[in-house]
Design goal:
Low-confidence stretches: none
Strand content: 25-35%
Number of helices: 6
Number of strands: 14
Distance between the termini: 23 Å
Structural class: alpha+beta
Radius of gyration: 17 Å
Helix content: 25-40%
Strand order of the largest sheet: 2-1-14-11-4-5
Shape: globular
Mean pLDDT: 89
Largest sheet: 6 strands, antiparallel
């Protein structure tokens, strides 16, 4: 549609509002959008056996998707981030850290966590994929190849302080397409919610783009 969309913060983490540099207050954000120029915004598609699921922010597989698969949504709606963190700690303790199979650019890769990102932010104001841009027709693939509770905790702490790209067990690639190939039937998350489909998923950009109000 030629209509331009304006995003207002009203969710759990409000990553799109962060990506657009909008105020946290919805009324202030609406005021900022009144004078914002229109830009094209890339839209991703995660395609699996059940069809294609559009996304604006990211698709990931690993511990975070397992957390969402086990999460009681009533906890999320009642406690927000705190409910997710609580479930995350439980899953972090008992998760088996299986290998994920990823295919991109003719290469086969392995990781215990994989994210295909269209914007930099993840889980809040944490720049998991700092080079991701929603208007450059590319996605950023972030792979964590560490294993076990200690390595995963270290990775999470490094993400919080913006130091994860210096780790030897982290790989970042700019890609047009990535296949989260396995393990077959594994969980994935799309834009912060459990994906209706299961692995394998082919992740790429849709040919269409959204027109959005994007403050400068």
């Amino acid at each position: 549609s030629p209509a331009a969309l304006g995003f207002l913060p009203g969710g759990t983490a409000n990553l799109l509002a962060l990506g657009f540099g909008l105020p946290h207050d919805p009324v202030q954000a609406a005021a900022a959008l009144c004078s914002a120029p229109v830009r094209d915004f890339d839209v991703g598609i995660a395609s699996g056996p059940a069809g294609g699921i559009p996304f604006l922010m990211m698709v990931s597989a690993g511990l975070d998707a397992t957390v969402l698969a086990a999460l009681d949504l009533r906890l999320k709606y009642r406690f927000g981030k705190a409910g997710i963190v609580g479930q995350g700690l439980r899953e972090w303790w008992r998760y088996g850290y299986p290998d994920l199979a990823i295919e991109t650019g003719g290469k086969s890769l392995a990781a215990t966590f994989a994210a295909v990102a269209n914007i930099p932010y993840y889980g809040g104001s944490f720049r998991l994929a700092p080079g991701a841009k929603p208007d450059d027709r590319l996605l950023e693939l972030v792979l964590f190849q560490g294993r076990g509770r200690a390595a995963t905790l270290g990775f999470a702490l490094d993400v919080l302080r913006g130091a994860h790209l210096r780790r030897g067990d982290v790989t970042v690639l700019r890609v047009e397409e990535a296949v989260l190939a396995g393990p077959p039937g594994g969980a994935a998350q799309v834009d912060g919610d459990l994906c209706d489909d299961r692995l394998p998923l082919t992740v790429k950009l849709a040919p269409e783009r959204l027109r959005v109000l994007f403050p400068t």
